[in-house]
Structure formats: C-alpha cells, structure tokens
Amino acid sequence: MIDLGCAALPAPEPWLTRSVQGALEALPPYAHTHGDYPAGLPALREMLAERYTARGIPTMPEQIMVTTGAMGAIDAICHLFAGRGERIAVESPSYANILQLMREAGARLVPVAMAEGLAGWDMDRWRQVLRDAAPRLAYVVADFHNPTGALAGEDQRRQLVDAARSAGTVLVVDETMSELSLEPDLAMPRPVCGFRTRRSTVITIGSASKAFWAGMRIGWVRAAPDVIRSLVAARAYADLGTPVLEQLAVNWLLNTGGWEAAVDVRRQQARENRDALVAAVRRELPGWEFEVPRGGLTLWVRTGGLSGSRLAEVGERVGVRVPSGPRFGVDGAFEGYVRLPFTVSGAVAEEAAVRLAAAARLVDTGAGAGAEVAHPFVA
Ligand SMILES: Cc1ncc(COP(=O)(O)O)c(C=O)c1O
Fold first, then answer.
1. pLDDT at position 367, please?
2. What is the CATH number of the domain that holds 302?
3. Among candidates 180, 170, 169, 229, which has minimal Cα distance to 206?
4. In a domain, 373, yes or no
C-alpha cells in the first residue's frame, strides 16, 4: 500500500537522534520534580516566547502553553470557547481532523468557501459570514493552508483580524505549516497575530509536527496570559501535560540550531517530493487539475468529475491510500476532489500516480462501487 493519507514526513535524521540524546542529558534535574507541567516546561515556554519575539511579535513565557500537538491545542481551545452548539467559522475546505474534532465537541461549523486556486481567503465572504453568523471562534490556516496550500497575504491577514474583531469572534490561527516554505525567494508575510489590535483576540497555534516530526507530539499556543491560564485549566482533565522528554528534545533543537538544520532537510525533502508528485500526476492523470503551492505539504486535486469518495475506496483496493475531498469539507462538499500529500518521492511517487490512474479508470467505468473506508489517520 502506498499511503498518501498523512501529510507528514519521516524524521529528519540525524536531528531526531541528536535531540533525544540532548534531552536525556538535560533530564536529571527534572527527574527530581513531580514532572507535571500543565503549561509546559518553563525552559521551552521561554524559548518559544523568544522565537515569537524574534519574529516581531513580543511575547512573554506566560503567553505560551505547550500542548500535545496542535490537536491538543485545538482541543483545549474548543473546550474553553466553543461549548455544545457554539458556532465556529472554518475555511472550506479545511484540515479534516480538526473539523472532526470540532464536530465531536458539539460545535456547529460555519463554512467559508476558499477562493479558487491559491487565491485563498475571499475577504468579502469572510466579512459577511462573520457579521451574519457572529461565530464564537474562527479557525484559519493562513500559512500553506491544508489542503489547498494557499498562503494568506498581509492584506488578507489584516482584514481577517479586523473582521473577527468587528464580529466579536476569537480568531484561531494554526501555524502548523508555517515553516514549510518551499521557494527560497518567497518572503513570508507577518504572522496573523502581528495585525492584532487592542480589542481583538487572536490565538496562535504552532507545532513541531510538520517542521520537524509528527512523532514528537509537541505543539503550543500563544495567547494573552489570562487566556493561557484558562486553557491550562481547560486541558487539566484531558492530558494533564505534555511528556517532559519530548519537550526537552524540542528545546534542545531550538537552542542548538538543530531546528533550523532539520527544517532545511524537511524543505528539501518536501520540495523534491512535490516536484516528483506533480510530474507523475500530470503524466498519468492529465485531466486532473491542481495548482502547485509554494509551500506546505499537499496538492488539492480536482479529479475531472470523478467521485473522490469512490477513488478513495477503489484506491484501497489497488494499493494507494488517499483521503477523499469530503473529508476536508462540511456537509459532503468537495466530492470531486482528493488530497495528495508530498510524502513520497521518485519511483514511489510515479507508482502512486499509476495506481491512482488505475483507480480512476475503475471508477470511470463504474467498477468502483462501494463506500470509502474511513481510514482515521488523515494528518
Ligand atoms: C493545519 C494542521 N493543523 C494541525 C495538524 C495536526 O498537528 P499535530 O500533529 O501537531 O497535532 C495538522 C496535521 O496535518 C495540520 O495540517
């Protein structure tokens, strides 16, 4: 099976091994404590705060909570802000697992359609939806959006913050993909929270999963100190805290320059994979349409009128796992799409495209009846 379910890459060695060795060396003083740090290790909170400050967003350690991945961050945010029946505005399409997490928290999702291609955020639409629905939260992935790969420009960022403030909506910005720029000459826009005004609430989420390795399960939240205190209380009955050793490993990476070196490896891998996948899909499936994103880890592909759900189901049978478009939508939207991540290269990317083309032929001739096997791991 060629698994294109998860948009996540293998660990960038030797940095995983080195960071774990560094963590082991730093561990002894922590072994004398109770080991429960519901807001995160002070050293890592400080380090993450310094990094925001260096990006032009002055941040104190009290504004940071370390979480169990970005998923843990969103879970705590939903607990705190979006009780049962509360509305959350989401990009349509958006990241499948977070949509599902929000549904399971009992939230009512209010989809805001993304513009075609890589244009991303249609601000007239956002303003109207936020004004009309006045949702409690709005969740956006402004940096290399999953699944489309779109990157919000500074004007879109400013307007998103402004529209959320006018509607009294808390803006949650997921920066999980932010370090995965794949073009050396691409100037990254200022972080969305840099456009915050005094009366707006912007909560930023980060993660080591895409920049480094999903197996670390380290994420974080940046918000006002009072929001962080409430989030720490909100997570208390879920996971109590994030493993100390992994926090020390990320802290080691951030302190030694290992993080930057690992991100470079990541970008190189992702760039090569993207180019291989794009070439293979263009060759094997010339009727499928997509834009080539300048960063992130995913291609959002229109499947020439074929059902994405049936492609996913038949793909399982011909040896390629892909999540269908509706996993990324609200109420069955995006049936004519699949998401392809840049996780395979060279001959494997070519074989993946060959298998997808075989699945497409079966679906096209009606031989692919059945329901998508809802494989849980869509990252
Ligand atoms: C936009 C986005 N947010 C969050 C996640 C999950 O992140 P984590 O592994 O840190 O929980 C992913 C993983 O694919 C993602 O793409």
1. 73
2. 3.90.1150.10
3. 180
4. no
pLDDT given for residue 374 in this prediction: 54
pTM passes above 0.70:
yes
Host domain of residue 188? 15-257
What separation in Å is there between the alpha carbon of 379 and the centre of ligand 1? 6
Please check whether residues 194 and 302 belong to one and the same domain.
no
One domain for residues 120 and 234: yes
Give residue 142 CA to ligand 1 midpoint distance, Å: 13
Domain count, the chain: 2
The residue nearest atom 12 of ligand 1, judged by CA position, is: 379
Q: Which of 148, 176, 242, 266 to mutate to test the pocket of ligand 1 (most atoms within 8 A of CB)?
A: 176
CA 301 to chain centre: 18
Residues 336 and 286 in one domain: yes
Give residue-wise pLDDT tens across range 29-69: 999 999 999 999 999 999 999 999 999 999 999 999 999 99
Q: Do 307 and 333 belong to one domain?
A: yes
